[in-house]
Specification:
Helix content is 23%, strand content 28%.
């Protein structure tokens, strides 16, 4: 099995012992992205929608570094600290993805790193 780390300056640097993404064959496994600005490494200011957009911008940067694009994501998992943000995340996704949308799970969690209220990870298929 080959394993290649993917790194993008357009997304936040890892804040732990993980890679932004790992490619194995034609699949790329993207680590969770929160709403960190890659330049300041701080959560972006604004409302939930602004933070959700930063999450997808971060995922977009990592997918590009892997040679792909968001519409090649086949599985997406979204973690929310408040499920009342579910409708907003759906609305934001419409701006980033075309149909057919990726398979997806949305899960409410008690807490996320750095006090974030949204995180997403994904599996990208490059074939």
């Amino acid at each position: 099995m080959s394993k290649q780390a993917i790194l993008s300056d357009g997304a936040p640097a890892a804040i732990g012992t993980y890679s932004q993404a790992i490619r194995s064959g034609d699949l790329v496994f993207l680590s969770g992205q929160i709403a960190l600005d890659p330049d300041t490494m701080e959560i972006v200011a604004g409302d939930f929608e602004a933070r959700a957009r930063r999450v997808f911008d971060n995922l977009k940067a990592v997918t590009a570094a892997a040679g792909g694009e968001l519409n090649q994501i086949v599985k997406l998992t979204i973690f929310l600290t408040d499920l009342s943000d579910f409708a907003t995340i759906n609305s934001v996704m419409e701006d980033y993805f075309d149909q057919p949308y990726p398979a997806r799970a949305a899960v409410q969690v008690a807490a996320l790193p750095k006090g974030a209220d949204v995180e997403a990870d994904a599996i990208l298929a490059l074939s």
